[in-house]
Amino acid sequence: MRKQKFERLFKSLAILSPALNSVCERVVDSVKDDDSLTQKEKDSVIASAKELFFHSSEIKDYVRRQYPELDYIHDGREKYDQIKSEAKKYVDSLLQ
Length: 96
Hints:
The chain is an all-alpha fold. Helix content is 80%, strand content 0%. The protein has 3 helices and no strands. The longest helix is centred in the N-terminal third of the chain and has 31 residues, at 2-32.
């Protein structure tokens, strides 16, 4: 039962990855040209996007430590990349 929970978390992280990457890219694109924000506000928004990305990596590392076969870099990379690729197609279709 425990491993199934981690497998679902692993898959969820792979699905989240393309959307999260898109958010981070769009934050930077949106903020850099927004003259209504101060530099401090821009920095804060960009820092928030970086935090999202950083903490998702922390969760991936947590999963990896629990079950090496769910390692998104080594043993589980092919599975992770396959799920991520399908999710990216979906995210890209929504952003058209």
